[in-house]
Design goal:
Length: 498
């Protein structure tokens, strides 16, 4: 039957070997030839299609339109697309639908005019087109809702796109700037330098962020200028080389930078004044204090037999307060120098340093100070670390109220930190004072009963925090206290905590 309608073996061979799906139909739309690729595309065996209407390969909603098109085609036969300009779907044997393209070509045969239909599955192309539309919609949404101004230009610098944020930033509508050179958005001398920036980008491909190392200014419609960051990116659009500039107004950042610079300058001036004040205080106050102390010592010695009990108590108070004032001045100077006056950072062996501190403090015979495990060696400023242990141990010794005093020093590794503790069996501290004692000039005992400047623990806290550590207290009134502090293990270079 097939050979009856074909003009020679050449056309039959062409259909059989073609990679495209092909069918030949008569004037009534009946399929008289179908090649093997049709089976793969529609899922029908060829023998089932022969003699059937081509409508079997189309969803029912398209069949009426197909009938009209076929009638029209035989009236004016020529090579053309079926359903041009319209969506065309194919119907698979399993009932699923897919996008297709159909090209019609007339065939003159001994039996009359026939039509050869070449069919392509365009599902992937349609999916790609849909994905492109979705991508363009997302990009448009990003373009329209972006916080930063976005300006798209061509190689000549002509503006093609101008998003709403750019409209707000520059004061122009998109219609006002489209087709104009982007240099209109820059004041002199940036206006004149624009072509150089663009030429540099075109030649090197460098995605340059103008504004690093130099300030770039933007020009608004009202003539005002503002500092901005400009990031330039390149893209190919329809074979054309385009550039997208992302613009950000950095006026607030510039103001913040200027304020920060001013504050830093003021802080440096204040620090310098504080340093000078410290030296003045040290010299101008300590000199007369030494004179008063010497005079008080002389009066107490040479006129001892002239004083009654009340007079001797007054002299004792006078001398103790002179010493307290002298210690207070030293404490303030030490506190002000932490973090400002730098020492050379060296390896500090804490086992040796703590022994030296204990020897220096010379605790009374009734107070035992013990180091319960080996201490690490740390990279630090020796004087600062010494001040930490000296102040904590001296407080424990100074306030000890038990006939058999015990002070224990321990250290252990906890994660990335060393955790130190100094525990005593002294009077303890009420929880309501835990924060207060680390404040400058704060003491719990009357100063005339226990000499204290109120600087020591504040100094310890400042040093520990300068090294990135933390200090806290646990205590029970009447049973003693434990001061804990940490130092990052990155500071430590050796040691063990066995």
């Amino acid at each position: 039957m097939t050979e009856h309608f074909l003009e020679g073996k050449s056309l039959e061979w062409l259909l059989e070997s073609a990679t495209d799906a092909m069918i030949i139909i008569d004037r009534e739309g009946r399929i008289i030839v179908a090649n093997p690729t049709i089976e793969q595309l529609f899922g029908y065996p060829r023998r089932e299609l022969i003699g059937k209407s081509m409508e079997i390969l189309l969803p029912e909603r398209f069949r009426q339109a197909y009938h009209y098109q076929l009638t029209d085609y035989f009236a004016q036969p020529r090579a053309r697309a079926m359903g041009a300009g319209k969506e065309l779907l194919g119907l698979h044997h399993d009932g699923s639908e897919f996008h297709l393209d159909v090209s019609l070509s007339p065939l003159k045969t001994e039996q009359g005019l026939l039509v050869m239909a070449t069919i392509h599955d365009i599902t992937r192309r349609k999916q790609a087109e849909e994905a492109l539309r979705e991508s363009e919609a997302r990009m448009r949404a990003i373009f329209d809702t972006a916080v930063d101004g976005i300006v798209t230009i061509d190689e000549r610098g002509t503006i093609e796109r101008f998003n709403p944020a750019a409209e707000r930033l520059f004061g122009y509508s998109e219609a006002e700037v489209t087709g104009k050179n982007v240099s209109m958005l820059m004041p002199s001398p940036y206006h004149e330098a624009h072509d150089g920036y663009l030429a540099h980008h075109v030649q090197t491909g460098e995605k340059k962020i103008i504004g690093i190392g130099r300030e770039v200014m933007g020009l608004r419609k009202d003539g005002t200028t503002f500092p901005m960051d400009l990031a330039v990116g390149e893209m190919l659009l329809g074979g054309r080389r385009m550039f997208t500039g992302t613009v950000r107004d950095i006026s607030k950042r510039k103001q913040a930078e200027e304020q920060r610079a001013l504050l830093i300058h003021e802080l440096e001036s204040a620090n310098e004044e504080l340093k000078n004040f410290g030296y003045v205080v040290s010299h101008d106050l300590k000199a007369p204090l030494r004179a008063i102390g010497s005079l008080a010592d002389w009066l107490s010695t040479d006129y001892a037999d002239k004083f009654d009990d009340e007079g001797r108590e007054h002299m004792r108070l006078l001398i103790s307060r002179v010493h307290r004032m002298d210690g207070l001045i030293d404490g303030i100077l030490q506190y002000s120098r932490v973090g400002r006056v730098k020492e050379v950072v060296v390896a500090v062996e804490l086992n040796r340093l703590v022994r030296e501190v204990i020897d220096l403090l010379a605790p009374p015979a009734n107070i035992a100070v013990s180091v319960e495990n080996s201490l690490p060696t740390v990279m630090a400023e020796p004087t600062r670390i010494q001040q930490v242990f000296q102040n904590l141990l001296s407080n424990a010794i100074k306030y000890m109220d038990k006939p058999e005093g015990e002070i224990r020093i321990t250290c252990g590794a906890e994660g990335r930190q060393w955790k130190f503790s100094i525990t005593d069996n002294g009077p303890g501290i009420d929880q309501q004072h835990f924060e207060k004692i680390f404040q400058l000039f704060q003491t719990l005992a009357p100063r005339d009963r226990v000499e204290s400047t109120g600087v020591g623990l504040a100094l310890v806290k400042k040093i520990v925090e300068m090294y990135g550590g933390h200090i806290w207290l646990e205590s029970t009134v009447g049973r003693g206290s434990t001061f804990f502090f940490t130092l990052p293990r990155a500071v430590a270079i050796a040691g063990s905590t066995k």
